[in-house]
Specification:
- By secondary structure, the chain is of the alpha/beta class.
- It is built from 12 helices and 20 strands.
- β16 and β17 form a beta hairpin.
């Protein structure tokens, strides 16, 4: 079997390393920092813990498959390694006019009923009609944009598969926001639709209508919480790598030079000048060149995470995730009921997340952000409960999932690079960012190295 060098220890790299080591390869991961997990990070202080990356898991089947495929004898499933619970309600939305609605988890009928009760008769039908059309996007793109390696001819993916209603002939394809305004006919429903795109770092006004697949995926496959926070998932994947014999070298920065021999990748050169030979190289860091496949249009985005340490117990009726729709920002408020994230029952850890331009032209007014959140969720009582706050901006742009349409502008570089023996994995390669997508990229790369076509099955 081959010796494989993996650059970076993000979630895609970890998942690929576990799969490759299970297949019998000798795998070494080179990570410039002192830890693993990439954006799946945690901030800890005074007994409080906060996820500073994703806080919820969608499409858990991706990681269930990873743990089954890398377990001994097809055993050691995901649920044996981490605690997974469905979040219900999946989210509560507080709109700019003060209206609020709680959406049940993975229940199309329940969501429709909640929208009808809050926004008026017909709101649920219009929402479900849009998600029904988004299902056509899912069926058209699930394999080419999630499960399989990127095809050499990507021109079919440049066309938006969303079957928009009443689009005038010869008009340019619609953005997600345009489709929302035309089909949902309620600014609150339009804001709801846009919030799913913003959660992934997209601008609803710029992203193609195919982004409607994002709420479809969440409402179809559910929203899940990992006990101990999402960092516990990174811990579990790392431990699986160790169990399969993966070697890690932290504090080992790859200079960016991939060694070549006889026209193929033959290893990596570290920043200290050390040259490491390998039969194949898997890169989990952003590529310098994108080979014409694009990485998305529009302004790059980052995230600002505000960690709030509160005195006083979490309310029994507190909602895990509240999305606050402000005139300037969409703020996601996470209030997990998890003893692992607080010093005792008399305290609460709350995380606020807002999407911002990267690099941000101006700092976000944190005081205003807290005032907006307290107005939307008065039971937080931030004025009397806040012990301290910590602002944690993302170190750079966030990676976003691949989408069809816009002439292929929202696709990512293929997992197989032009240099034989060099493969790309993680959020900066096909099929893009997000935990599920990076997990799928690992499955694709492992299959390519095994000599397969690059598929997840």
């Amino acid at each position: 079997m081959a010796g494989i060098a993996v650059i970076g220890a993000g979630m895609g790299s970890l998942a690929a390393a576990a799969r490759l080591a299970t297949a019998g390869h000798r795998v070494t991961v080179y990570e410039r920092s002192a830890t693993y997990g990439g954006g799946v990070a945690r901030f800890e202080r005074d007994g409080f813990g906060f996820d500073t990356g994703p806080g919820l898991l969608h499409l858990p089947a991706v990681y269930r498959d990873l743990f089954i495929k890398t377990g001994k004898g097809g055993k050691e499933p995901l649920e044996q390694c981490v605690s997974l619970t469905q979040v219900d309600p999946a989210s509560r939305h507080v709109f700019a006019d003060g209206t609020s609605v709680s959406l049940p988890n993975a229940s199309r009928g329940g969501v429709a009923a909640a929208l009808d009760a809050t926004l008026g008769p017909g709101a649920g039908e219009r929402w479900n009609g849009l998600l029904g059309r988004a299902r056509e996007v899912w069926e058209a793109t699930r394999r080419p944009l999630l499960e399989d390696a990127l095809a050499q001819d990507v021109s079919p993916l440049g066309r938006d598969p969303y079957p928009a209603l009443r689009r005038p002939l010869r008009r340019a394809p619609s953005s997600l926001a345009e489709v929302g305004r035309r089909e949902l006919r309620d600014p609150r429903l339009v804001a709801l639709l846009g919030s799913y795109a913003e959660a992934y770092g997209f601008d609803p006004e710029a992203v193609p209508a195919s982004a409607a697949v994002l709420p479809y995926m969440e409402q179809t496959f559910g929203t899940w919480y990992v006990g101990g926070g999402m960092r516990a998932l990174a811990d579990a994947v790392y431990e699986r790598c160790l169990a399969r014999g993966v070697e890690f070298r932290f504090g080992a920065e790859v200079s960016g030079e991939v060694l070549e021999k006889a026209g193929r990748a033959a290893g990596v050169e570290l920043a200290d000048g050390t040259r490491v030979e390998a039969d194949a190289v898997v890169s989990g860091v952003p590529p310098r060149e994108h080979d014409g496949t694009g990485t998305g249009t529009g302004t790059e985005t980052g995230r600002l995470v505000v960690c709030l340490a509160l005195r006083g117990a979490r309310g029994a009726d507190a909602v895990h995730r509240t999305v606050v729709h402000d005139e300037r920002h969409v703020v996601t408020v996470l209030r997990p009921d998890d003893p692992a994230l607080r010093p005792d029952e008399g305290h609460e850890a709350v995380t606020l997340t807002v999407t911002v331009p990267a690099p941000s032209p101006a700092p976000v007014d944190a005081d205003r952000l807290l005032a907006v959140v307290e107005a939307a969720i008065p039971e937080l009582r931030l004025g009397e409960r806040l012990l301290w706050r910590e602002l944690r901006p993302s170190p750079g742009p966030v990676s976003r999932p691949a989408l069809a349409g816009a002439g292929g502008a929202f696709l990512h570089p293929a997992n197989r690079s032009p240099l034989p023996g060099l493969y790309r994995v993680g959020g900066w390669s096909h099929p893009g960012g997000g935990l599920a997508h990076t997990g799928m990229s690992a499955a694709i790369v492992a299959d390519l190295i095994a000599g397969g076509p690059g598929g997840s099955r």
